[in-house]
Design a protein that fits this description.
The chain is an alpha/beta fold. Helix content is 31%, strand content 20%. It has helices at 3-21, 64-73, 91-96, 106-109, 130-142, 177-188, 211-219, 235-252, 296-307, 319-324, 340-360, 370-374, 407-413, 494-504, 520-529, 533-542, and strands spanning 30-32, 39-45, 48-57, 80-86, 146-153, 167-169, 199-201, 222-229, 284-289, 312-317, 332-335, 364-368, 398-405, 419-424, 445-452, 455-456, 459-460, 468-475, 478-483. The strands form 3 sheets. The protein has a 9-stranded mixed sheet with strand order 10-9-11-12-19-18-15-13-14, with helices on both faces. Helix 9 (296-307) links the parallel strand 9 (284-289) and strand 10 (312-317). It is elongated. The two termini are 40 Å apart. Mean pLDDT is 85; it is low at 1-7, 16-25, 268-279 and 515-555.
Amino acid sequence: MHPRNAANSLVCAIIACLLLAAPALATPAGWIGQGDNRTPWYETTADQPGPTVLIVGGVHGNEPAGAEAADQIRHWPIAKGRLVVIPRAAPTALEANTRRIPGKPRAEGDLNRNFPRTGSDNDELTTVGPTAEALWAFVTELQPDWILDLHEGFDFHARNSNSVGSSVIHPSARGTAPYAQAMLDVVNAEVTDEEKIFQNLGRNGPINGSVARATIFHLGAKGAILETTWRDQPMPLRARQHRLMVHALLDKLGMAVSHPHTVFPDHIHNHADNNAEGEVQRPIRVALYHDSGAGDGGVQNLTRIVAAMPDAHLRIVNAADIRGGALDRADAVIFTGGRGGAQGTALGDEGRAAVQALVDRGGGYLGICAGAYLATCRLNQYLRLVNSYHIQPWQTGTGLVTVELTPEGRELFGDLAPIAMRYANGPLLGHEQGRAPGLDLPEFRTLATFIVPVEKNDKPQDHMIGKPAIATADYGNGRVLIISPHPESNPDLDWMLQRSIRWTVRRNETPQPEPVHEDAEAVQAVSSRTASPRRRRASSAARPARARRSLPSMQ
């Protein structure tokens, strides 16, 4: 498997787990099925009468972009009619990232072949297996006017006819051609590679045994299977393509209200998460950037970290999503390591303004390494959220460093001993002035400094000592927190990133320190093993002696 495909698979598996947890963040309209494959459905009903549109995702567990898109679409307002969404038709298959439902006989495992078939020998409306039976009973009672089933192919049909990837599959004779063309026009407007153009597969319609075909031919609905392509394409792009096509249909039906890039709910509540006054505390809506300039490893790690937060609602977005308004309902945004200039270039003027607007209205910004560069001011494509210009040359080196918290840093993270972290050419922040005229930004505040530097060509980079490793700044009504090294690479420091996210949106401001699993002596041993005698002398001179406190765990 190509390394990028492997990275995408890991992110997809984590997102599948996020989707399984989603019902805790919003109340479904009801449930379908029993046992492990019990799955929620959601509905939005407008005041004005109109068609009933059913959106289904997650029929195949190794095609998670449909489930992700459906889970976003369920939050859309509509002008008329009824929008019903089943994001995870086969939840155990999504969790396992497998095409078929785990533990089922082969004939029963492929949910896309288990619904009532068409043809002269298929007069009886029979289903195969309890999952298909429960879903078909629901659809039969619903009697939708439209059904869109969201899938993914392994390759692009335009270049490989063996795959139906990137296509709209519909029965032309059923009057769907104008709607299919509207969906194709919208999604293809963003495709520049001729080999990736979405194709119109409008002849016989969806495959026999699929829920889409059964609904069209047995219940008289209109509909289609919408296929994206998972090969060499990140999740945010594929989910976006599904959203574009679904929105195009709703627009043609006169049902669309907002833009197709609404990925967060407007109001979400977790009634089990109350603050000290007993008021409901809404989950934090966190957008994680995954596009040009974002390293796959950082996206994987931050996805894992945010997924473990019971008070967070994560969406992974790309630059086009941000330009289109995906941050309109977000509380915080995260930019990971990679290349800060490439991230800023991908965002463009409109995307950078959207990030600035999020923070200005009171949102949070967390930037790690490249994401920290992105928040500063040296380059025109940077966000200019923090009044800092990283010190040149930027290629300091890669390896292990040790950082020490400042008094303000201890207020946030607790009274911790120096912490060892991975470092990879992160920014060294400086208080230079006059490089960006017209900016009215406050000085940044240092939360941690480097005390043991990285080595480059066997030489300690002593100019790092004392420079900011973690910093914060106010921007408008919001908070920015930038981290030069990579704490997300060490699962023992996941709590630090989780606390950082909460802090940027003014949650848990009273420090409730988590223990770092290595004790002070272990950190010193790690640092000493990677330091030359000269480096050890420099770090010792820079670090005052201080006893480590015993820290309580945050529950």
